[in-house]
Amino acid sequence: MPSIPVFCGKDCGGNACPLTATLENGRVTHVANNPAAGKYLLGCSRGYNLPSELYAPDRVLQPLIRVGERGSGRFRAASWEEALRLIADRLADVRAKFGAGAVLNLSSAGSTSALHGTGPLLRRFLNLYGGATRCTGSYSTGASQFVLPYLFGNQWKTSGFDAATMQYAEMIVLWGANVLEARLGTEINARLLEAARRGAQIVAIDPRRTRTAQKTGAWWIPCRPGADAALMLAVLYLLLKDDRVDRAFVAAHSTGFEQLEAYILGQDGGQARTPRWAEPLCGVSAEEITRFARAYAAAKPAMLLPGYSIQRVYAGEEPYRLAVALQLITGNFGKLGGSTGSLNNRLPGPRVGMLPVPAVPNQPSVPVTRWPDAVLEGRSGGYPEELHAIYSVGGNYLNQGAQITKNIAALQKVDFAVCHEIFLTPTARYCDVVLPAAHALEKEDIGLPWAGNFLTYKPQAVPPRGGARTDYDILCDLAERLGFGAQFSEGRTAAQWVQHFLDQSEVPDHDAFRRSGFYIAPDQERVGLADFTRDPTAHPLSTPSGLVEIASERYGRETGFPAIPTWQTPPQDERYPLLLITPKSPHRTHSQGSNLAEIRRKAAHALDMHPTDAAARGIGDGDQVRLFNAAGVAQVAVRLCHALAPGVVCLPEGVWVELDGDGLDTAGAANMFTCTQGTAPATACIMHGVGVQVSRCPAHIGS
Ligand SMILES: Nc1nc2c(c(=O)[nH]1)N[C@H]1C(S)=C(S)[C@@H](COP(=O)(O)OP(=O)(O)OC[C@H]3O[C@@H](n4cnc5c(=O)[nH]c(N)nc54)[C@H](O)[C@@H]3O)O[C@H]1N2
Ligand SMILES: Nc1nc2c(c(=O)[nH]1)N[C@H]1C(S)=C(S)[C@@H](COP(=O)(O)OP(=O)(O)OC[C@H]3O[C@@H](n4cnc5c(=O)[nH]c(N)nc54)[C@H](O)[C@@H]3O)O[C@H]1N2
Ligand SMILES: [Mo]
Fold first, then answer.
1. pTM, two decimal places
2. pLDDT 10s digits, 31-67
3. Which fold has domain 64-134+365-520?
4. Which of 55, 310, 549, 703 is the most buried (most CB within 10 A)?
5. Is the CB of 10 under 6 A from ligand 1?
6. Where are the chain's structural domains?
7. CA-to-CA distance for 57 and 48, rounded, in angstroms?
8. 143-347+529-559 is classed in which CATH architecture?
9. pLDDT for 163-220, tens place per residue?
10. Cα–Cα distance between 507 and 487 in angstroms, integer?
């Protein structure tokens, strides 16, 4: 059977995993790992599942124009000509009346590849259109990407590590990182399992004892959500008390440590941030904190791998600043087998061309977390524009953005909303026009990995089903109608762009790359900021001091928050005493697959709850419950779970919301409970550690 190289291009923490597709009678029957990529770069179930997505019976296969109320899901089929004419007319109309900034660009990473990346494609299109309002920050790393430049300057972008260097670690601390289920790069899974087999100590600091923790025999430290900063401060306290601080290393590489030290020791007039102080905050006993601090101090080198979860919480800015401090004062920073404590995936990939996005001077923008507020409040709420239209490509913002009820109101308010989609998602249901987008296996492209020094390639495996078209072709056609077709396409077909990107690349043998689908760059053991660490004078950071700024006066000045990382007590509401976490499902990329029967079966959606919390509410395994807070209410089934810190409930993100007439979500969508306020100062989303309450449904509802 012929098989060809592919990758899925999903924003799943892999993005470009090397895969192959087997074809039988013109149909893709099977997706597997690409043997050309060796034993560490492996795909996962989400990639292997591409064919069931491709051939799903409910794919959108023709342009749809809304005929019912927004959200009703009632559309009529339309010709491409009619749908594109309507969109072009409406976009031209909005621009003429209100200016291009009245369109909100809601693109996301449904596809992440070099040409058909949905983010850059829509940005290029809307920037040439005149500069729509764009979203800044990120649902993924909003708080960390805000603070890391204060610590590292521009070099924050090269502060990650290659997964291959995990082989040198004596201890790997997965701090809120569930990498076997929520990938953070293609290679980490195999490397972590290998490290565990070799006898490296794996520590999992997570409110849940995840499969990652179980499979690696990890030491599980169940920290309460949003309390990592307290736990980190207590660990730092012990390192100070035990005199395990590498003072020469700290002095040579950082500034401001003494300010942090004074704070930790309580010389700021506050309490010393001891393990006893942290215990009630993080739910980990002082003895366990002490055991961990001592083991961490003794392990050389120790790699601290912070998940992105620990910054998607109240005051999520602080844990990343403290993770860096921990790696610095233990001397693990910038060393082979250690890490800087930064986001793992911040290292450059191989040189390759990508779709250019032209800049727009003074482009209006809103923090992504607040997009519905910007629509609902406009200038009166301090936002830069009155937003009249929404263009969404490669995202399911209604479902994936915080506070679903607000998102619905925003989508209801605009004059015009359009999206390109594979499926009729909750967001698509609120659009006026839905255009059928081609699937990953229907497009030729170059894959850009989330982390890793390699590239992948895929030819088109099969032509688009039904009337589907690629986002590139759709936007070319619209650009033509709006008068900037030549600028958008630069006269290139999709295939010519791909060749153009290859011509700009470091890939030496294009034919070999096209055949194998895989190119690997020479250096696979890069350590972020290694040069700086070796010689800080010769390779200074671009911070004011040239060093890592543990205390950043600039941060203090610009944000009004303390120059050093501190503990900030989250607000509490006694009506909502349980802390909800909403992690990734291993079976889905975000909301993708929520509509597919097989994935629904595998993902078996339920609210995980500790038996003690359930018993206190008279709830048994499998019972239907109301999960609620001030933002929303859902009905879900409970699954009793011992592998969860008491006081915490867990509802995986991504399930498509299904509202009944009374505003009750009967599906269990995580963002019914989150809100758009965000962290301060980054205005990044808060999706873990959200206060909720659970009550048993009356029998007649549950049965
Ligand atoms: N399967 C799958 N993998 C993915 C994705 C996906 O959709 N599906 N999406 C990708 C994307 S876009 C991103 S940005 C990354 C995000 O990756 P992360 O943000 O790291 O992923 P999460 O699943 O939110 O959280 C990881 C773990 O942190 C735990 N956790 C939650 N809150 C806290 C806390 O406050 N403290 C601590 N210590 N632990 C906490 C959760 O229980 C979970 O086990 O994942 C990528 N990987
Ligand atoms: N409660 C809670 N909410 C979260 C998170 C959380 O941890 N908890 N995680 C957040 C994070 S880290 C992220 S990154 C966001 C992700 O948020 P989104 O990017 O909105 O998530 P997806 O569900 O992956 O949406 C991608 C959409 O693109 C479509 N698509 C796929 N391929 C293509 C294509 O080639 N063309 C077009 N036009 N469409 C395509 C898919 O069908 C899907 O509907 O969610 C955030 N939301
Ligand atoms: Mo993300």
1. 0.98
2. 999 999 999 999 999 999 999 999 999 999 999 999 9
3. Rossmann fold (3.40.50)
4. 310
5. no
6. 64-134+365-520, 143-347+529-559, 578-696
7. 18
8. 3-Layer(aba) Sandwich (3.40)
9. 999 999 999 999 999 999 999 999 999 999 999 999 999 999 999 999 999 999 999 9
10. 27
